[in-house]
Amino acid sequence: MGGGSSTPAPTPPPQPRPPSPTLGEPWWDIKWGNKEEDLQYVKEYQPERDDIRHLRILLYGPVGAGKSSFINSVSIVLRGRMSIPAAASATTSDKSFTRRYETHYIRKEKGNPQTFYPFVFNDIMGLEEGSGSGVHPDDIKLTMKGHVREKYKFNPVSPLSSEDPGYNPEPSADDKVHVLVCVFSANSAETTESVLQKMADIRQAASDLGIPQMAMMTKIDEACGETEKNLRNVYKSKHLKKKMKDFSAAVGIPMNCIFPVKNYSEEIDISDDVDSLILSALRRMIDFGDDFINKI
């Protein structure tokens, strides 16, 4: 009968800790908890030129990136309560929800109900894969020059022609686009070569016109668990930083001109941290656009 004790199994070596998904320090400094300064700046903005009543901001990008939702979110931030001025789809789709060219005015929160802020957004049909679908790049180029009339219905197959009733032959300085903003989702798959080429064509046309450009990365909470837990991790997130770097390299927009934002979607109350990111992006749009209109 063997009475010897068995040799205990060796203790497995400790597993290395997985790398942290966040950086020790943010790569960009944002003044959390101090949104009032940006809010006041935006609310007090006024174009200095008499022939321009509104600074015009054109949003473009892939389908489902959150262009209409951003316009809604700006209205919420500035009015301090929930509001829905731009129709936005609540479902994920590979087809554009926005079909017509429409100017979105942001109503001021007090006083005359017909009083609006002196900047407007134009939200156009999204860029889609391949030819014959989504907004035609030539229509975006005409939009930047002010040639597209209000309510024009985009035709993915055939861009607007000078004979079309939707064509504005003599655009004013107020009709033209003053800042171009590319909107892309942090939570989407890699942007296809077809869409990237359309973006490149649009960016080149804007550059030829001297129109300033920037980008917004939306749905940051859906793409990064650490940012979903705490929005203040956005500039610490390794994943989001890589997303921004990859987009910057693919499209050519510098990192310091790409702004991560979270649009209002499921919330029933406003959040200072959500507001801070939206106001940070909006203030840059106003600065870039204002510099442009003072040069043209």
End-to-end Cα distance: 100 Å
The level of helicity is 25-40%
Largest sheet: 6 strands, mixed
Strand-pairing-aware structural class:
alpha/beta
The tally of strands reads 6
Question: Rg to the nearest angstrom?
Answer: 23 Å
- Element string (H = helix, E = strand): HEHEEHEHEHHHEH
Biggest sheet: strand arrangement: 2-3-1-4-5-6
Task: Name the shape in a single word.
Answer: globular
Low-confidence stretches: 89-97
* Quaternary structure type: single chain
User: Helical region count?
Assistant: 8
| Percent of residues in β-strands | 5-15%
Mean pLDDT: 87
Please, could you describe this protein's structure?
- The structure is a single chain.
- Helix 1 (35-44) runs parallel beside helix 8, helix 2 packs across helix 8 (272-293) and helix 3 (137-144) packs parallel to helix 4.
- Strands 2-3-1-4-5-6 form a 6-stranded mixed sheet, sandwiched between helices.
- With 296 residues, it is of the alpha/beta class.
- A hairpin with an 8-residue loop joins strand 2 and strand 3 (116-123).
- It is globular, with a radius of gyration of 23 Å.
- The protein has helices spanning 35-44, 67-79, 137-144, 193-209, 220-223, 225-229, 238-251, 272-293; strands at residues 55-60, 102-107, 116-123, 179-185, 213-218, 258-260.
